[in-house]
Amino acid sequence: MKLLSELNDDELLIIKREHYDPIIMDKIEFMKSHCFLDDEDVKASLAKETYANFDLYYAIECIEDDMHEDWLSNVMYSISVEVRERIEKEINGHLEKEPTYYPGEEVFWREKTCRIGTFEKYKGYAGTIEYDSEDKIHYGKVLFTNENHLVNYEAENIVQLEEEFHKAVDDYLEFCKEIDLKAE
């Protein structure tokens, strides 16, 4: 089982919730969706890429249940091999352009604290993105500040967390200006 914090930000996940169809999204999109983080029935797994393969015989066989006994063989006999191969080749050519996904290894995402990633630099500073599943709060700290200063921020979701990160950087720069300290 993989930990969410170990995955790359662009890693695709299949998210399953009870009474809903599965959803495919990347790690960051998942972590921004606080409705999933608060739902106890959410299961996440790595999305494994595959491609569908169309088989005309099988497609027609699926229809056969509602038809008379010899229907399938009559239909298949009436379509020449060349036509069947051309149909399958045409459809499979389109299917090869669009991957589909199936659930792979399960992802444990309810870690007590989970390091999700970092925000892009704002005024020269980066910030961490972390989540505490027990307290259901996102938090982080500004990176690359003067060693004597710890600058933290928190919010209920990642969108608000980024806003708080920007405010924290602005406050830190203002603080440095007030005490005449060169910001690093």
Can you describe this structure?
The chain is α+β, with helices and mostly antiparallel strands. It folds into three domains: 1-51 and 100-109, no CATH class; 56-98; 112-184, no CATH class. 34% of the residues lie in helices and 30% in strands. The protein has helices at 27-32, 34-37, 56-64, 71-78, 81-95, 158-178, and strands at residues 2-3, 12-16, 23-26, 43-50, 100-108, 113-122, 125-132, 137-141, 152-155. Strands 1-5-4-2-3 form a five-stranded mixed β-sheet. A four-stranded antiparallel β-sheet has the order 6-7-8-9. A hairpin with a 2-residue loop joins strand 6 and strand 7 (125-132). Helix 3 runs antiparallel to helix 4. It starts with a strand and ends in a 6-residue tail after the last helix. The mean pLDDT is 86.
Q: Main attributes?
A:
184 residues, five-stranded mixed beta sheet, 34% helix, elongated
What's this entry about, in short?
This protein is α+β, with helices and mostly antiparallel strands and 184 residues long. Helix content is 34%, strand content 30%.
